[in-house]
Amino acid sequence: MDVLGIGGGGLWWGRHPFNDLRRRIKNNRKNRQSSSSESTPNSVSRTGFRFPIKPALTAGSLAFAGDSIAQLRHRWKSLDTSSTNSSDDYNKDLVASLLSGHDWLRALRMTSYGFLFYGPGSYLWYQTLDRYFPQPTVTNLLVKVLLNQIILGPAVIAVVFAWNNFWQGKASELPMKYQRDALPTLLVGFRFWVPYSFLNFWFIPLQTRVAFMSLGSIFWNFILSSTMSK
Questions:
Q1: Rounded to an integer, what distance in angstroms lies between the CA atom of residue 35 and that of residue 113?
Q2: Environment class of residue 162 by beta-carbon count within 10 Å: exposed (0-12), middle (13-18) or buried (19+)?
Q3: Residue 81, SS3?
Q4: CA 153 and chain centroid, separation
Q5: Nearest alpha carbon to residue 105 among 76, 75, 71
Q6: Among 20, 134, 211, 214, which is disulfide-ready with 59 (CB 3.0 to 4.6 Å)?
Q7: Strand residues in the chain grouped as ranges (E)
Q8: 51: left (phi over 0), alpha (psi -120 to 50) or beta
Q9: Residue 83 CB neighbour total at 10 angstroms
Q10: Of 209, 121, 95, 193, which is closest to residue 153 (Cα–Cα)?
Q11: pLDDT in tens, 112-150
C-alpha cells in the first residue's frame, strides 16, 4: 500500500506533477488578479490626467466674486453719492443703479479663466514646487516666492490678457495690449503678491494654497479691472 502511495496520507497523490501544475496556475491567477486590482488606480493616476475639479471650482467662484466686486466698485465711483438724501426711495434707486448694468459676459470670462486655467494651473504649479522643494526652509521659501514671481506671475498675466482679448474678438490687439499693460501690471503685482506669497508658502498647507491665492485674487482684481477695461 505504501508502495502504491495509498497509505501514509496519500503522499504519492499529493506530490503528483499534475497537482503541482494546477496549484501554480491557481496561484498565478490569484497573483494577477490581486496585482491588477492594486495597480489599476495607480496606473490611472500615473498615466492619466485627472482634472482638479475642487481647485478649479474654487478659483472660478472666487474669480467671479472678484470681478463682480470690481464692477460694483466701478459703478459706485461713477454714481453721484455726494447727496445727503437718506430716504428709502433714494436708497432703493442707489442699490438698483449698482446692480443694474452688470456685465455678465465679463464675469463669465473671468469665471471661465479661473475654472479652466488658474485653478488647475496653480494646483499643478504648487504640486511641482513642493515636489522639488519639500523642506520648509528659508532658502526653499525664497526660491518658491522668486519662481512664483518670475514664472507664475507673467504666465497669469499673459493668459488672462489673451483670454479676455480672444473673448472680445480683439486678438489682433493682443501684442499692443502686452506692450502697453503687461509690464506695469506685473510690477504693481510684485508689491502685492510677494508678501502674499510669503504667507502662502510659509503658513498655508499645500491642499489649500490655490484657495488662498484665489482669495488674494479678489483684491488683485481691483488692480486688474482698470487694466482689463482699457
A1: 41
A2: middle
A3: coil
A4: 14
A5: 71
A6: 214
A7: none
A8: beta
A9: 9
A10: 193
A11: 999 999 999 999 998 999 999 999 899 999 999 999 999
Whether 225 contacts 71, CB under 8 Å:
yes
36, 95 contact by CB (below 8 A)? no
Give the max Cα distance, the chain: 117
User: How confident is the model over 147-206, as pLDDT tens digits?
Assistant: 999 999 999 999 999 999 999 999 999 999 999 989 988 988 888 889 998 888 888 888
Angle between helices 53-78 and 209-228 (to 10 degrees): 40
The DSSP H or E segment spanning 125 is helix 119-132
CB of 177 closer than 8 Å to CB of 164? no
Contact present, 107 and 68 (Cβ < 8 Å): yes
Report how far apart, in Å, the C-alpha atoms of 69 and of each of 74, 81, 95, 144 are: 9, 18, 14, 30
Cα-only R_g, the chain: 30
Contact 96, 35 (CB under 8 A): no
